[in-house]
């Protein structure tokens, strides 16, 4: 299916309004509009804008039935059917409900007015059980349970989408060939659930959807800040991430070759990004669902997925669901302030500069220099003081060391376990590195300085992320400014998950 209909529609519309144009004039006009639009940005007309929720084909195809699929955390809650609502949406298919509890609790804790929450999960019972447990419910912000609906059955909806079904086949070597099957090493990425977020605009009735990953922590009133956020006609707003460029994800050679033959996913040869365009992070995305549906973004993502499957998984790398989202949007998103997605927390590696700053070189000078680069994350490691953490609306634990992998007490003991950095850049606290380990770290990091390959081999001695963090105090969880001092970011997370809740979730 070709997705260039909007050009033809636009050209035809214009032609009809004026006196009939010659073939040559039409072609000129089309070329002009291509130039102006720099890519596949659809030309936007009123009649398309008024696409209503119910008459969109994909929405009808999704056969979403809220009565059947969703349940409120408070059984007595009134169902909401308000198109003007602000919905905070989460989607996850892991067993642990605690990360979601932390997101719900922290969002509500800071919100002046509670938003609606919609959680789409493969384990609705577990989350509902947790939220309804008396020892958990009593510690939740008042009214929250009335606002949280938990929805299951989404996987069944997703596998009905032909593109996602084909994608799943990629794990079957006898169906797609060994080479293609081998290209996606992490099989779980082929799970249709990774695409769940892209279907939310078709199943949730809302004026705005704030999609959040479950490894975030909300630290300020995101509802007030984003409820009336001006998207400037864009379908989504997200935070730009210049530590990664499109080339990391997209095989541009192949993309250009495919596009020479035909447009796909609404993408033409004149796309509005290039190999060195910064990506955006999909962990925090503000969506205008009506605009999203009108632009057909979900269908665009699906056709890109089909192209990906068809070319034997060579069109992109570094994830399966992130690249088509990047491609479908290109540069057409509103850029949210960096504070809405302070990411990089929980990283495993430390950089040479971090190591030196804390250990060898004048620490405060180094720290200040590092912090001045706030927010740009230019392919460099930064001190483990998360930049902007004290002003963050949303902290994002993108690294492997998720806060729930540390116990609450361990997360709090950072001052005695590791080197402590004060806001003025002084290092205090003892870092009791094991002698042998210390030698190992030194050597490995020295290799990196020599520009020798310094990938994960450095940490080969550690068989788990946690063992690395527990062993080497420098590779510790990042510090977040909190009050007038600093605290382990992970301990902030534990502040939103009561010990009782952690025990209930363990049952
Ligand atoms: C893999 O593909 C083959 C051939 O298309 C098919 O017969 C088989 O049932 C598939 N296996 C799975 C696990 O889907
Ligand atoms: C690539 O795109 C960026 C914007 O994303 C632009 O600033 C830059 O000039 C482009 N580079 C080339 C070579 O076109
Ligand atoms: C990791 O290493 C430790 C000691 O080095 C060992 O006791 C433990 O069993 C290992 N764990 C795994 C999962 O291999
Ligand atoms: C929710 O967060 C508040 C504030 O940090 C905390 O006191 C409370 O224990 C948390 N509730 C649960 C159920 O964890």
From TrEMBL:
Q: Where is the signal peptide?
A: 1-17
Q: Does the keyword Transcription apply?
A: no
One Pfam family this chain carries? Glyco_transf_8
Keyword field contains Ribosomal protein: no
Keywords in UniProt for this one? Answer: Glycosyltransferase, Metal-binding, Signal, Transferase
State any single GO MF term.
glycosyltransferase activity
The organism's superkingdom is given as Eukaryota
GO cellular component, as recorded: Golgi apparatus
Family, as annotated = Belongs to the glycosyltransferase 8 family.
What is the protein name stated in its UniProt record?
Hexosyltransferase
